[in-house]
Amino acid sequence: MSEQIKIRKAVKEDWEKIYQLYNSLSDEDLYLRFFHLYRITEEDAKRIASNEDHVTFLAEVDGKVVGEASLHKDGEFSLVVDRNYRALGIGTLLVKTLIEEAKKSGLSAIKFYTLPENIPMIKIGRKLGFRLRFYEDEVYGEMKLMEKEVNINLATSSSP
Length: 160
Ligand SMILES: CC(C)(COP(=O)(O)OP(=O)(O)OC[C@H]1O[C@@H](n2cnc3c(N)ncnc32)[C@H](O)[C@@H]1OP(=O)(O)O)[C@@H](O)C(=O)NCCC(=O)NCCS
Description:
There is one protein chain. This protein is an alpha+beta fold. It has helices spanning 15-23, 27-34, 42-50, 90-104, 119-128; strands at residues 5-9, 54-61, 64-72, 77-81, 109-114, 131-134, 139-144. A 4-stranded antiparallel beta sheet has the order 1-2-3-4, sandwiched between helices. Helix 1 (15-23) crosses helix 3. The longest helix is centred in the middle third of the chain and has 15 residues, at 90-104. The termini are far apart. Coenzyme A is lined by residues 29, 32-33, 78-81, 86-92, 112, 114, 118-121, 123-124, 127. Residues 5-151 form the N-acetyltransferase domain.
């Protein structure tokens, strides 16, 4: 299957494909993606495709967009995969792509929030090495990408 899956950055013209993907999602999927139930508008789909304050990657199978993953400037990301294409490794592939993108962008960490019952997302986080924190109503996953540079000013002042 993996040779048929193409992961690529979204371009403006993809908005309709993104809109179609979102229209095919169940209420539950939308809730998991946005943390509340929300049906996106055409304008929202255009914003997702714009890459303006985030970067979006798409998973395509035979030209059909079956997954979308967006990484925001603060390192938070979220994703969704079409129900008919799940458990094939697409979600894992998308998150791996976002990790690489976050590293390239110089982000110090990448993170996600999900619900405690979201087993596939928790599996992805665990498998890829995210540090997971479990709370009553959410799970927080974080991966540090860079240790902050410690600037130790070793002043080599020569005493008089
Ligand atoms: C989370 C989501 C993106 C995962 O997509 P996916 O393409 O199925 O992910 P993968 O195929 O990489 O599967 C990840 C793991 O979950 C497992 N898995 C997939 N579906 C499963 C299910 N219904 N029950 C249990 N495990 C499942 C896979 O076997 C895999 O396990 P492994 O790593 O041990 O092999 C997808 O379920 C989804 O779109 N959910 C709704 C939106 C959402 O929850 N977004 C996340 C918000 S942060």
